[in-house]
Amino acid sequence: MYFNDMYSITNARLDTPPYQISQPVRALYYDQEQTLWLGTKGGGILQIHDYYPDNKLQTNSFALITASNSSLTDNSVYCFAPSRKGLLWIGTEGGLNYYSYSSKQLKELSIMADGKEVKYIHSVNELNDSTLWISTVGEGIVKVILNLAGHIPSVKSTKRIVMDNGRMASNYFFTSYQENDSILWFGNRGYGAYRMNTTNETIETYCFDNIVNSRMANDIFAIYRNDKGYWLGTSSGLLYFDCDYVHQSKADLFFNNTVHGILEDYRKNLWVSTNQGLIRFNPDTGTGHVYNGTSGLETTEFSDGAFYKDNRTGTLFFGGINGFVAIKPSNISVEAYMPPIYLKGLSIFGKEQNINQFLEVTQKGHLLRLSYNQNFLQLDFMTIDYINGNSYSYYYKIEGVNDQWIENGRSSNIVLSNLAAGDYTLLVKYKNHSSGSESSAFSVNIHIAPPWYTSSWAYVVYMFLLMGLFVMIIYKIVYSYRRKQDRMMEKMNQQKKEEIYESKLRFSPI
Q1: What is the DSSP letter of 381?
Q2: Backbone phi, then psi, for 172, in 5-degree steps?
Q3: pLDDT tens across 13-25, in order?
Q4: Cβ atoms of 265 and 316 closer than 8 Å
Q5: Residue 309 pLDDT > 60
Q6: Nearest to 444 by CA among 405, 412, 396
Q7: Residue 85 carries which DSSP code?
Q8: How far is the C-alpha of 350 from the C-alpha of 388, rounded, in Å?
Q9: What CA–CA distances, in Å, run from 166 to 137, 139, 161, 192?
Q10: I need a surface site. Which of 86, 335, 399, 402 has the fewest CB within 10 A?
Q11: If you ran DSSP here, which 8-state letter would residue 51 be given?
């Protein structure tokens, strides 16, 4: 048993003593008499009496109903559907049975539609006291009007509805879902979902292969609606739509997983059974948590149609290839555990360093001091959660550089490269996919020192050198100007002397 403060998960193997049932579970129902009904593919019906999800199975309180010891039409049982008339409808490969709670007997109800016996029944919806809608594999949808006078039902009339002129491949209906008193959905393998207004029997078809670029998205095995819209289990994964637009679920955990069943718990989580385990999906956050063999589940591959919710207790049941799983919610409301984030390591250019040689704790928080040639670094962060630690995704951003959070996946190691000299604030947070909660941001201040030739002292020296150069240039200009003036004065004085000498020669007597 797996449990926490929100729910408990019980796994029951049926391929071990005393049951020795090797066939997959294909249908489940838990009635008011605390009897758990398990329909198998080829092994008949296993009834477990006085069943309580919290207790271990009582090996002395079960019965196996087969075609050889009862009126069961076939040992491949695909669905159970409770009736308002104290009956339990049972759909099998060979036809329809019902169990009467008043007489404690299981009987067959033979149904003919268009001259052909109704077989391969995978889903039954009792829409009112006298109308059954039956989904079959290969033979379309059958409407049955019942005569329920007394305690023994009989068939009053039938109508078979087929697609594509009755072509078998177009009429594989594996599931149905009652939305309200007049709307029924039918899931088809290969051709999408069909929405029927039972008042006028008009049908709308919804296909998804062009939307998700996968033909297998039209294989519909489960349909469910909540306050956010419609959720479909397909061979491609979990699909969401609201009749106005269609898109694939944002939870990439579901992609490529075949979804066999969808149930909602009282916390509004969707539990999804797949071929690779159970997924608890939070529609508000678009995140999911996977439960598989690593989580302790012994049943990890689940079956089509094998899912049921007991509304009295809120217990969810899922059937698989070797048993079933029961999920019982807890009424205890607890706050999700959100461990703090720690900075535990530093590597520079791929070489691990002693972080304490670079890290300071200041009033503003953690400060990492690095030189200009240490700007290719990896910071290693850590959160301590031994239960859900593998369900964390990490995000980071640098204030002033990245406005959007960058997803780092499951890794808590963040690589920063080619940081220019300056001051930075790195913010790191994580999202817990188990609870959908998000941690507060952890901040680290990073100072990258500039190289010596770009330091403040270097710029002071550069300033003095420039000033000296400027003074020298001015001095040279002034000196050159004065030298030029001196030469001009000397030339003028020489010319004046020559003029005086010439004038003396002109006026002197001979």
Answers
A1: E
A2: -90, 95
A3: 998 888 889 999 9
A4: yes
A5: yes
A6: 396
A7: T
A8: 29
A9: 12, 7, 8, 16
A10: 335
A11: -
